[in-house]
Amino acid sequence: MVVTSIRLLPSSLTSFVQHRSPYSWRSLRPSSISFPLSPIHSTTISSNGIIGDVDHQSQVIFIGTGTSEGIPRVSCLTNPSNQCPVCLKAANPSDKNRRLNTSILVRHSNSKGTHNILIDAGKFFYHSALRWFPEFGIRTIDAVIITHSHADAIGGLDDLRDWTNNVQPSIPIYVAKRDFEVMKKTHYYLVDTSVVQPGAAVSALQFNSISEEPFFVHGLKFTPLPVWHGKGYRSLGFRFGNICYISDVSDIPEETYPLLEGCELLIMDALRPDRSSATHFGLPRALEEVRKIQPKRTLFTGMMHLMDHEEVNGYLTKLMESEGLDAQLSYDGLSVAVRL
User: Fold this and answer.
1) What's 320's DSSP letter?
2) Torsion angle of the four alpha carbons 62, 66, 67, 68, in this order, in degrees rounded to the nearest 10
3) The pTM of the whole model exceeds 0.90
């Protein structure tokens, strides 16, 4: 019988070294054809304008870009009196409005090889992995970093048993202490494996405690970005290189803004087109934050069924023309080539 312990990471890693992180966009659809989002395909644009090959560059892959309930909603598809246009579109598996729980996979390539670092494994993780892991040739999960302890971020931890039973011995989980305390209740059998019946094969997870100080995962530095996800509820975004990822946010504390300086690619929560909710930025507030943070490019995530991909991106394109604001909605299966 084994009681899985939570291991404390060093808290002395307080310095932050900025890296130039050029990137290009592309997506893979189930047909395995690559569709560029810019005139440059399979290349990276560096800060001095030099174009270079990105065949061996790192990637950020959007495993999911939707809300906790996902899109389409079953209630919309079964409502005979009020048809939802976005959910009807999303019923098509290849439509960009089809969104599962918000999550990204950082595919970090360096001289030691490539590591797959997943940020969040929500309750739809199995379905996201089933769709995108074979498409991108993702075999291992080398680490999971948790933003917060809601079901759309940790509900898929049980599904990691497929990897630890069939692919690799275990998976390290990086999680804040407050969220680990929640996991002791919601996933008690993964934390304390002594309660598991003999012969049962559950996920073999190694829990590592993180604070709000920088930490390293397979040589890649992650700087936590503390934000509020509703009144009094702390969630973490993460900065790696010059990429900043904030998936669940209702307010950004003043002390977090310095950590966002020099951000080149901002991935940020934008729930709905008209207003914010108690726990999430809406598009107007998200755009206010983009103007304040001033990243080079922004991709919004965490969209509900009121956010029509084509319509909202059409509106954002006009902001590019009028303000020079480079922002678009992300979508499930989007891959961004990055230099970390």
Assistant:
1) H
2) -60
3) no
